[in-house]
Model the fold of this input.
Amino acid sequence: MPRITGIEIPNEKRLEISLTYIYGVGRSLSVQIIESLGLDPNLRAGKLTEEDIARINALLQTEYVVEGDLRRQVQNNIKRLISIHSYRGMRHRLGLPVRGQRTRTNARTRKGRRKTVANKKK
Done:
């Protein structure tokens, strides 16, 4: 398995898809990277040469914020929102939906442990 920015990407998938296994790289960015380096998007990731892997690594480290740096940046943004007591920060702290979703129903994913709802009596 080729190792790019500390992440092992799958051998058997196309390069365009394999690059999306890196945190911060989606489909559009993956296509952009492949075009800028002049690689074949249909090439399987296992067929990459060491030189190609080195070029991809160098491009990701110089041009884009990915993996650990991006995760750290996102966590710092959340901590900042919490520390300034903004509405979004309070929602993060309480483990509630942050982006305006309803909480009367369907908000169980962010509320912690699953709570069972009582059945109707017959």
